[in-house]
Write a structure and sequence with these properties.
It is built from ten helices and ten strands. The chain is an alpha/beta fold and about 280 residues long. The protein has a single domain, classed as Rossmann fold, CATH 3.40.50.
Length: about 280
């Protein structure tokens, strides 16, 4: 089976300018990363802040170019160092960012946000674009009447649903999700994670999912890659990595992070709501 996305010895260097007391130098943020994700599967990239996981996500999303190595999308080498990706290739890969408050243009109505990719990349009529946008709003749990509202009129969870809807407008095969639920409340996290799983099943999507939250990773991932200081120190199935982490860094990361589950999150939220209801009844 040809993987939807594959990385071969991906490296990324950054130039650090010199100063009065230090020379300029090159810093290697990624050090020869190898990975592959098959169709309909989710690869979770885990690591602490500064490990290089978001750098890798931006390379997979065709936003930044790698310094070395090869990135393949559906078997084709994509090198944005040599030229911009084709419209067809750009449509195959979409990204959902961490902050739903900053990823949407506050001056655009939701309908315009969703239709913009269709305006740029398709020849659909205005009526066809609107029909698609309203259908996608339903897919992510919103209503057609939200079409004419502005982003500030929505909650954080609703804004992230809009961002997910926008990413799906061009029918991509690969979605890169960079900490997509970390800015949301616990109860909303569970709802958005369930939505992502439902959409993956419905559209046969492939996910590259960046997260520092192990409970989220345990719920959403099929494969897990642990990154430390730009190196992939451990890779394997979710079951294998969580049951028997072999690298000392992975064990240290797991030991330092409280691990729970979506079911536990729901139970805590239900307990909190019940407590509030009891206090309100007094």
């Amino acid at each position: 089976m040809t993987p939807v996305v594959e990385g071969r010895a991906i490296t990324r260097d950054y130039h650090v300018p010199g100063s009065l007391f230090a020379r300029s130098r090159e810093v290697r943020a990624l050090k020869g990363i190898d990975f592959r994700v098959d169709k309909g599967k989710t690869l979770a990239i885990v690591g602490e802040s500064g490990s290089g996981k978001s750098t890798l996500a931006r390379i997979v999303a065709l936003i930044d170019a790698p310094t070395g190595g090869e990135l393949l999308i559906e078997g084709s080498v994509v090198d944005i160092r040599r030229g911009r990706p084709t419209t067809e290739m750009r449509a195959k890969v979409q990204m959902v960012f961490q902050n739903p408050y900053g990823s949407l243009n506050p001056r655009q109505k939701v309908g315009d946000v969703l239709m913009e990719p269709l305006v740029i990349n398709t020849g659909l009529s205005a009526a066809e674009r609107r029909e698609r946008a309203e259908a996608m709003l339903r897919k992510v749990g919103l209503q057609p009447e939200h079409f004419g509202r502005y982003p500030h009129m929505f909650s954080g969870g609703q804004r992230q649903r809009i961002a997910i809807a926008r990413a799906l407008m061009l029918n991509p095969s690969l979605l890169v999700l960079d900490e997509p639920v970390s800015a949301l409340d616990l109860s909303v996290q569970a709802q958005v994670l369930n939505l992502l799983r439902d959409l993956q099943d419905e559209f046969d999507l492939t996910y590259v999912f960046v997260s520092h939250d192990l409970s989220v990773v345990r719920y959403i991932a099929d494969e897990v890659m642990v990154i430390s200081k730009g190196e992939a120190v451990e890779q394997g199935t979710r079951e294998a990595v969580f049951a028997n982490p072999t690298h000392p860094y992975t064990r240290q990361l797991f030991a330092a992070t409280p691990v729970t589950s979506v079911a536990a999150i729901r139970a805590r939220v239900a307990q909190r709501n019940a407590l509030r209801a009891a206090q309100g009844a007094r």
